[in-house]
What does this fold into?
Amino acid sequence: KIVILDFGSQYTQLIARRIRELQVYSEVWPCHMKGQEYNLNSPEVKGIILSGSPYSVTSEEAPTLPGEVLQSGKPVLGICYGMQLLVKSLGGKVVRAAQREYGRALLTILEKKGLFEGMGGETICWMSHGDSVVALPPGFVKIAKTEDCEFAAIRSEDGKIWGIQFHPEVSHTPLGKEMLANFVFFICGCNPEWTPESILKQQINYIRNEVKQERVVCALSGGVDSVTAAVLTYRAIGDQLSCIFVNNGLLRKGEAEEVLKSTQKLLGKERVIYVDAGERFISRLRGVLDPEEKRRIIGKAFIEVFEEEAAKLGNITYLLQGTLYPDVIESTSVWGPSARIKTHHNVGGLPERMQLKVLEPLRFLFKDEVRTLAQQLGIPEKIVWRQPFPGPGLAVRIVGEVTPERLEILREMDYIIFQELSKSPVFRKIWQSFGVLVPVRSVGIMGDERTYEYVGVLRAVLSEDGMTADWARLSYDTLDVIARRVVNEVKGIGRMVYDITSKPPATIEWE
Ligand code: XMP
It folds into this structure.
C-alpha cells in the first residue's frame, strides 16, 4: 500500500482517492503518526506521499517531518508543503514568497523519466503555495520548472525522494494522474491489485475474522452504506446477522415499502425485521418547533425502538455500522473533527448503551468504492445511487411543527420533484434534491378562485461530501415543470420557490 501522511491539506483525501483509482490501496495517516498501527517500516508500505498543508514550513508551529519517513528507506513523494518539508529537513532552503502563486501554470519538464516518464516537454499544472524552495539540498536535482517557480519538481540523485510544488491530484493538472501512476507503479513497484473483486474478498475475510461465531445486528436505513454493509456481512457470516428496519414515519413517499422489499430480496425475508413505529415518533413531535429538539426526540425514540427489538433477538455481540473512511480519517486527524464541523450523529452512544462492539466493514472505503462494491454485490442501482437522506427525515424538511397533514403534503411535493429530476441527465450529478415545506400561507389565484396555501421549496445541491455545497443550476424548463406540477397536483401548496443559497452560508437542510 501507499501511505499518505496528512499535513492538513484540503486535498489529502483526494490524493488517496486518485491512488485507489489506479487500483493501488492507499491509507491516510495523521502526520504525527502516534499509535502502533502507524509503522512505515512494515513491508506492506511500498511508498510514502507527503501531503500539502495550510501551514508555512517557515513558521514555528508547522508540523515537522517524522524521522521514520527517511529512515524507512521507502520511496517518498512530497507534494507542495510535503516537498518543502523534505527540502528544509535535508538542508535546502525554503522562503516565504512575496506573493502567493495560485492557479494554472505552464510546467516545463526537464527530465522525461521517473515521475515524468512518457510525458512531453510542456504541460499545465495547478499551483497553490505561499512558500518557495530557493536552494536544493545536497544531492538533489531540478526536473521541472515554471515561469514563476524555479523548482517546480525535484528528485534525489538516487531516485528515491521526489518533490513537486504543484498538485497532481486535482483535475486542473491534466497529467497529474499519470504522474501519480508513475510514482506508484515505476518508483514504488506497486501492482494494480485493489480491484472490486479483491475489495470484496478482503472485506469478507475481515468480517469473518472479527466476528467468528458471534451474532451481529444491523440498523438498516435503506441508504447505500447500511445496505452494502448488511449484504456484505450476510455474505460473510450468513445466519449470524439480523437486521432491523425502523420506519419512523418520516420517510419519503413509498420509501419504506421499497426499502423493505429490496432488502428482503437481498437478505432473505426472515432476516429483516420491520418495525412500523411511525405513531410513536409523530405523536412525540406534536407541538415541537425547535429543530434540535426534533432531532433529540427522534434520536431517542429510535434508540428505544431499536433496543426493544434487539432485546427480542437475544445474544448479540456486534452492532453493524456503515461508517466510511472519510469519517475515520477525520476522527484520527491532528486537526480533529473540529476542523470540519460535524454535528449529525443520529444514534451516537447506541453501542455503549447496549454494550455492543462495533463492526465497521466499510471503514476503509470511500463512497465511490462502496458504490462499486454495492454493484458487485448485486444491490439494485436505485439503492446504489440513492441520495443521502438525514436520519430525522422529513421532520427537518418541514419548518416548525410536524403534523400528519404537513407530512402528506411534503411527500406529494417531494415525489414530483423526484420524478421530474430523476428523468434528467444531470440527476446523478446532484448530491441531494428534495422538497421543503414552509408552512406560511401565500395568496394565489386558480381559475376564478383566490387561494391561500403553503409555500413549497425546491432544494437541489451539488456537493462532494455535504460539508460544502453549491445550488444546482437546473434548467428553466425543469424548474418550470416542477413548479407547475406541484402547484397543480399537490393540494396545500400554492407557490413554489427555488432555493439558490449555497453552503456556506446556508446549510443543505432547512433545519
Ligand atoms: P446540512 O443541512 O447540515 O447537512 O448542510 C449536511 C448533510 O447532512 C445531512 N443531515 C443529517 N443527516 N442526521 C443525519 O443523518 C441529521 O440530523 C442531519 N441533518 C442534516 C444532510 O441531509 C446533508 O446531507
